[in-house]
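Bug #77: duplicate submission created two jobs. Keeping one. Sequence:
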Amino acid sequence: MEAIASILHADLDAFYASVEQLLDPSLRGRPIAVGDGVVLAASYEAKAFGVGSGMPGRRARELCPQLTFVGGHFKDYERLGDAAIKVLGDFTPLVERISIDEAFANVAGSVHLFGPPVEIAKAVRRRVRAELGLPISVGVARTKHLAKIASQVAKPDGLMVVAPETELDFLHDLPVELMWGVGRVVKARLAEIGVFTKRRPGTKKGMARWMVDRAVDAIRGRFGWEAVGYASVALEAPRSVPEEFRELAEKDL
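Kept job's structure:
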């Protein structure tokens, strides 16, 4: 059976800051940050000035003098995050939550009830906006890694579908930091060897990481959603996936 783009990654946009703007309409359209001494989250209006999570409050104010700091309403974050994930659960039981504000959903078995994956993604976005008043971005792809990248590309408040035949074209010119697990340190190391986009793997380890990711997805597609714990697999080395699993998976790659 030909693989289709049936994995959704749904990610609430600037979640903490969006909740604060929802609770206090006077904050809408203004640059705000949740926290005080350290920025826990920033609205997109604040991000436009370079304010980001983990940034010292003093530095954030230097970048954006009009920045408003607000205290967090963590019970509301939990309540609204749970409600958004529940919307996904109304379309499929195969939901894997990976944080308070994001989750994967496998909708391959739901198309006969709700239509193509892209229509399910649109419905999720409409319901979250209508029922919760929050923006959510959704990526749709054949694998979880690609779906997560797609949701980042879709931000803010967008939808991105990556068809299987367009995967490489989609990835080639994206910055490497959009790859799941590539943070500031890895980004800097890749830059040292001249790797800035996904077009150039750069090292054998980079290619191994890509192949392991594909193997993990193939294993889970063949043996079930829980066959390999995605978050528990270290993708830095090809030995992270047992050879017997790799051999089975690669027959389908």
